[in-house]
Each structure stands twice: as C-alpha cells, then as structure tokens.
Amino acid sequence: xxxxxxxxxxxxxxxxxxxxxxxxxxxxxxxxxxxxxxxxxxxxxxxxxxxxxxxxxxxxxxxxxxxxxxxxxxxxxxxxxxxxxxxxxxxxxxxxxxxxxxxxxxxxxxxxxxxxxxxxxxxxxxxxxxxxxxxxxxxxxxxxxxxxxxxxxxxxxxxxxxxxxxxxxxxxxxxxxxxxxxxxxxxxxxxxxxxxxxxxxxxxxxxxxxxxxxxxxxxxxxxxxxxxxxxxxxxxxxxxxxxxxxxxxxxxxxxxxxxxxxxxxxxxxxxxxxxxxxxxxxxxxxxxxxxxxxxxxxxxxxxxxxxxxxxxxxxxxxxxxxxxxxxxxxxxxxxxxxxxxxxxxxxxxxxxxxxxxxxxxxxxxxxxxxxxxxxxxxxxxxxxxxxxxxxxxxxxxxxxxxxxxxxxxxxxxxxxxxxxxxxxxxxxxxxxxxxxxxxxxxxxxxxxxxxxxxxxxxxxxxxxxxxxxxxxxxxxxxxxxxxxxxxxxxxxxxxxxxxxxxxxxxxxxxxxxxxxxxxxxxxxxxxxxxxxxxxxxxxxxxxxxxxxxxxxxxxxxxxxxxxxxxxxxxxxxxxxxxxxxxxxxxxxxxxxxxxxxxxxxxxxxxxxxxxxxxxxxxxxxxxxxxxxxxxxxxxxxxxxxxxxxxxxxxxxxxxxxxxx
Length: 660
What we know:
A middle domain of Talin 1; 3-stranded antiparallel beta sheet
C-alpha cells in the first residue's frame, strides 16, 4: 500500500472537488416525454458510473494508477452534475430527489477520500445507488409542450410555419407589462435568469427554449453562451455581440426560410423530403452551428476572430468545452455537408439513406443533427437576447424606439412586436423593402390609433422604409396606408404625448390620420374630417374630467390643449393652404382657451366656467355641424350621436419603463 503522504495526495483530488451548486427553487418549463426520458437515462447512467468507480477504487495500486482512477471518477461526477443541472429548468424535475442526488455525490466522494487517507476500503456508495432508482425517468406518453400554457394564453403563439410570434403574446398582455412579467418570472427563474426591462427579449427567450425540438440542448446552449459573454472581457463580449448584430437580418431570413422549407416538405414525397432535409441541414451547419460554435470557442480562449470554414470550426469545437464538443460530434457531419455543398449528394430511396462518394449516411442521423442544430441556434439566440437586455442602463426610459439600440433585439423583430404591444395581431409582415406591409388578424374602429402608434414605432426602427401599408388577412385592400414623411411630421406630437400622458389622447395621431385618409378620400374632405377630429379631441379633454378642477386637473387639461395645439400645427404642414380654414379656426380657439385658463380665478375651478368660454362654445358648435366623421374611411365604426368620452389620459408617472 502507498505511504500516507501519497494516499493523502490522491484523497485531496476528491476533497478539492467544488461543492455542487444548490438547485433553483423553480422548475416550470414544459418538456415532452421523449427528451426527458432520454436525458434522464443519461443522468442515471452517469450516476451509476460514479458509484461503480467509487466501489472499484484500487487502493493497493500504484500512485499513478490510483490517481488516474480517482480523476476519472471526478470527471464522471462532473458529467453527472452537468446532466442533472441540464434538466433543472423543466417541470418534471423532482427537487427533493435532485437535492438527494447532490448530497449523495458529495457524501460519497468525501467518504472515499477519508477511506483513502486512512488506507482502508471505501464504503459502498449505497445512497448514490439507491437514488438512481428514485429519479423520475418516465413521463406520461401523451405529454406535450404547449406554449399557450407557458404564456397563459388560449391558443398557441406560433404561425403557420411553426415560428414563435412573441407579438401575439404581447397582444394578450397589451398595456399590462406587470402582468406579463408575473407570467414570465417563474420561467426566467427556472432558467437561472433575472427579469429585465425588455418584454420582447424575455417573451422570446422563454419560448425559444421551451419550443425548441430539443429543449435541453437549447437551455444548455443558452446557459453556456450567457455565462461566456458575462465572464468575458467587455471588449471581447462587444466583439462577439457586434458580429451577430451585423448579421441580424440574414439570421432572421435564414430561420424563416428553413422553417418554411420544413413545412412545405411535410406534404412532399419521400425523396423530396429527404433532399429538403439535406438542404436544411446544410443551412444549419454553415449558419448558426459554424457561427455560434466559433463564438463559444473564442469566448473560451479569450480572443475573437471571424468564423473560418466549417472544418476548422469543428476541429476547434472538438477541443473545446463539453457543449462545443457535443455539438461538433452530433451536428457536424462533414461528409454530409460536403456532399450537399459540392452537389455530390445522392438519395437512395431503396435503402433509405444518403450516399456521398460511396459513404452511406442514414436519414435519421441527418434529421437528428438538424434537431440538435436548431436547438443550439434557439438557445444561442436566447443568450444574445438576454445579454443585450441585461446590459441596459438603469435609467428613465427613452420613450421613442431607437433603431440602433445596442440593448434591444433586432429592429425588424421589434417593429413587428410593437403591433402586438398595441393590441394588434400581426399575422404576417413584409418589413424589408421600400414599402413595408403588415397583415393584421382584424382591424376595427378601436384599433385605428393603436395601429398608428405601432406605425410610429416601426418608422423609428425602419427609417429606410418610404411607406407603410396595413391589410387585414383575407383581403387585398390596403386599409391604412401612410407615407413615412407623415409619420416624421407626427413625431413631435407623439413624443410630447409619450412624455406627458399614461395613455394616448385621441388627437395624438392627427397628422398620420390625415395622411392615411388622404389616400382613400379627397384631400379637401380629409382636411375637413381632421378638423372635426381636432374639435372632438378638445371636447374629450373638457368633458372627460371632473366638474370641479383642482390645480392638477387644470394642469392636465392645459397639457391636453397644448397637445391638441401641436397636433393641429403639425397637421397643417401636410394640408394644402386651400383646405386649412377649419383646422386653423380650431387652433385659434384652442389658443384662446389656453390664454384664458390662468385668468379664471381660484381653484377648484368649475368646469362650467371653462365651458362657457366663447372659444369653447365655438368648438362645440363646429363639432356639431362638421361631423361626426369616421376615424378612418376604410374602417367601420358604430354611430356616434354624442361625443365619446374615452378614459381620460392621466399624467405619466416617472420611473423605469418596460421596453421592446
């Protein structure tokens, strides 16, 4: 037997193993029975290997052999912990049994270290062996992943090609970010992520992980890249993020193209499906696998360079960390990629496999590689989204979207999401062109101003777009069309409203409304219509408040009138001089009311005193004889025999605000 000093050196290998991380309190993400069972089997297999290694410690062997055996046991133990932590976010995870696994591993290694130092046979790791039989390895066969349940919705937020639509989730939680955060917070906690102020990022990353074909790979990929970015130098992290920021549009297009190919291939014959699968695989491995695989390698070695060819990336990944090595082994099929790229690939339908230079490659293996690749991509995209959002400075919000915001998701994703956050379901979008087009599930009277607000946001994010068109699914008629210059004119009014009010007053989008209705009715009629709408907005401010106005009420009314004044002023920039008469009359009356308010005596101020002002009476008279008019000619609405008093906008409270 080795002398005490030598045995103690080997025992220290076991003692120096870092204590296992405590488990998180929540395990909420759904997972299907297949992946859960497969990964659970792998976990139990590794635990049994640890137990077998501890039982077989060769205490009478040479120092070299004993030390090598113990290091192998430690490596297997670390692999078992990785397998356990990989399952941690998911709902079937048994927290009590998981805690017992951690304790059994720690105790077993400690007991073996003590026995080695004492020169006696280690005790049998009974607790570790027992816990292997207690781990929940099988789920009900019908277990399915329902993103609707994840988000608290009545239907799945995915489109016809299976792509997650975060905007549909935001639609369900419109204007109620706190309720959305309460829904997402348990899932973020299960993923080990703190909440951020970016609603779109949080909504997206939770769905990307849960909805991945292999959610375990997606989670581990997200976790690895998130930690790599967090621990890298700021310069290196910025280089990695900058590389992917420059390629956002291409990655979005590639994802949609791949999903569309998968969907269309489902109804094809066997050969067409096989060839489509080969094309899908090539796009995955040359795109996200190559790019994200190299990013992980660069974060590991501490230096950035542009991703090289796939072969070099694969070699680097094989020598990298556990995740990179696994992705390289499971997803990078060099012969398959080369055959597809060089047009040397054949499909043998009789034997149900591909052939490249005489080498057979099973169809199932290619599909499995694509599943791993897609899941790897989803997890890495989730990591990028979280890293950006988590770095946003803690300061008061900038209310208007910024196209090149380094702390947000891509501007195309955000532009689409703003329709959802305004209560509109964008079923389809075409945002990459001079004319951007959006197809909504429905467009009713109450959606008009929210639609204008979504278009304002989209214009800020897509400044190269020259015009925006809004359609309803199933119709070729453009319901709302707005040139970009009109949205630019409207910007000062919108910004003023965002900074002052907690909801948009009806007059906020007067310039946009004029431009939109000018495309479907004569300009002269559009000018008369917005004049009536301006009067309607002023009456909304007057009639929606209390009968006795204290100082804060007067301030709020003053702000509303100033907003109406600015909206009219900007609208006049779009209207030919021959059509400005009515709107200028309303502007003059609003200015007179603003001049009179400070002179109306002490507070509280009787609203009847304000209503008796001659300019207010002129506005009421104009409202009654000029209208009513539809808020937009192409959108039907109920009759309005009297002023409709909507919820009166209040003063915006200061503080942090949720972002997209």
